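Bumping with the actual sequence this time:
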Amino acid sequence: MTRFSPRPVTAVLGPTNTGKTHLAIERMCAHSSGLIGFPLRLLAREVYDRVVKIKGPNEVALVTGEERIVPPGARWFLSTAESMPLDQGRDFAFVAIDEAQLGAHPERGHVFTDRLLNARGRDETMILGSEALAPMVRELIPDAEIIGRPRFSTLSYAGIKKLSRLPPRSAIVAFSAEEVYAVAEMLRRFRGGAAVVMGALSPATRNAQVAMYQAGEVDYLVATDAIGMGLNMDVEHVAFASLHKYDGARRRRLTLSEMAQIAGRAGRHQRDGTFGSVAGHHDAQFTDEEIERIEQHRFPPLKSLFWRESRLRFDSLGHLIGDLERNPSSPVLKPAPEAIDLAVLRRLADDPQIAANVRGTAAVRRFWSVCSLPDFQHRGAEHHASFVAQLWQHLGQGRGHIPVDFIARRIADLDSVQGDVEKLGARIAAIRTWAYVAQRRDWLADPEEMAGRARAVEERLSDALHRALAQRFVDRRTAVLLRGLGGDASLLPVTLEEGDSICVDGEPIGHLRGFAFVVDAQARLADRKLLVAAADRHLPGLLAKRARALIADGSDALAIAADEKGRPALFWHNQRIGLLVRGSSLAAPRFQPDRALEAIPKADQEALLAHVAAWLDGHLLKPLAPVRALAKAADDRRCPGPLRALLVQLIEAGGAMARVQAEPLISAIDAGGRQVLQRLGIRLGSLDVFCAPMIRPDCQRLLRLAGAVRAGTPLPAAADPMVESLRTVIPAAALSAGGHPAYRVLGDQGLRVDMAEKLIRAAHDKRGQAPTFAIDPALAISMGLSADNVGRLMRAAGFRRDGSAEAGQGAGLWRWRGLDRKPRPGSVPEVAPTGHFAALKEWKVAIG
């Protein structure tokens, strides 16, 4: 695993501002050739520019995933750690790896560990990093010389300060684009503006923003933790807007080393620096122990590093995956969590069509290089795998090149400088993907042309993003909205007024729609971020009261209805609070709260969700109990197959179906099965089979809702009131084109199936008394069924008029002729459920 070498290895370890990177540059330039790997593309570019001034542009190369500047005679290379050209036959006299303690990073750690173990210069190797790395160096590279470097200046804690009171030349650190933009917007109001630095920015945008800060056009810099990785700027104070970050898996508190790495950007060379927190941010406060350790540069030593095998076999996909999953042999190395390249490889290797085209060493090696494409847009393994599969369709067949018109169209689609900061940032993330693809000379027939196009688009987008950032976050007029309060939004009184209006110091700034804050439509666009910032400080308390009010309301305050897109949603006082989505079963849809509910304090949020769940149970489970009962019986393996099949068909049909469709199943059900049907409320009528509890109005209404939720379709329009109430007899025109499971259509009327069977049963009772018989019209009249439609029902049930009857009597006499339940070919077409029960056809019966 470890490749020991007699060539000297020096580990230069120490806190920030110790000159480690400067030392490495000096040592590299003293050799005939050299390579340094950095943790950030931005840092690689910064050092590249410095070395170009020393050695000249024809001697220096820059190699990152998205950018490749390699003059033919280049001898000194600056690179990101992932892109270090170590396996391309080059022999460098000097090799260094910067920020090697990132070997403990869950996502990228295995790359830095591999470089620490295996990247070696012909004459000299240098490892740069934190003092916490020392035990790992001693364990893994016992012959390495460890040199400690003291910090050039003092770093001290300056306490908690309001954003409006931060000293000039301050950097404010946040951990999401949203936080960075919000802080920058507030600084625009308070102090005239701020520069913005994030890892997702292109080097051109970042350099333009830093140049604006360095030139004194703005006195403040708002950044993510990208500034912690050696980016050199004249920062005197670092203020943390948060000490928590989302690391790709969870939101967690920064480690002590991470805090110190960022705080250490304050001060430069012999100039002292300070660090502290931004007032009002409850999760940005340091503990006394953290302050003491950062000031004294005492950090817990690393006990392990992440590792993944780098010497891979490419003779088969199985061997490749096995190598990538191999466990390390050293006790201080631990397997790296599954990175996105391995996750993509697994997904695509499981696809038989893709795996069939990956045969032989060359194909496997090429396939792995495609799977290693970085997910610059952070779309996740599933979406990224789909994109990689699309590229492999071109690379794995034919000439093995991505067609020029394919990549040219994708690049051209991104060549637009219109839009706001977010849209431009998204386009830059996307063009980084194509810039990376264009750097792969074996993927394109004309890589130089495509790389040039991608670079040109990125430069245009970078310039546009810089202009957009400056326009949005730099205001020379400093039009302070918060007069007399020092510009601190948190000091303003925020109240919830009548009509759900939110006011700041008596002035309306927006309103609550459900639990979402909506900025006043009349507010100037430039003021919107500030208004949100002012409201956000007080929203949790307002929303907590609102949540308690919802819980205290009666059950009538909640209702299920279609939202503006027709989706089944839950409303509170006509304000949507979430959607109903597919749950564990038909009768138990799940509540998916709107994102606005995430702003409610945790305890009140959990109480609200528990209240909604209980309300749904009470509102849905009892009316849909018949469906649950049928589903449970249909899922019972002890029940005979024909019985289970009949239950499934009944659920699919919405509770009732023509008997002729079910006759083959009914004839196969024994006496025990019929008893089960009887217990479930299922009636085997002469013309229809139906579940009496399922055709009740409350169950039918909720079946419509449950069907839409289960199928993910818009909620059907409300039925005619007569149909909704399931009146005994209704006009046939009131039924939808697909009919209704609870009704049998007779001429111009619809008769509920249970009432139809009641009339037929009465006729059979008369039939047993004489060969010919008359029907008492009272029952039909009481239902509202016309005489003509009574005749239609009788004929459908197997009765015929008695033609031998005397005039005046024959019209009212009937004779049993028998009912043939065997459908003749073409006489009884198989009818699938239609109307608002059509979605039930796709349901898989499950038990809630």
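The tokens above came from a reply further down the thread. Residues 1-5, 476-487, 805-810, 824-848 have pLDDT under 50 and may be disordered.
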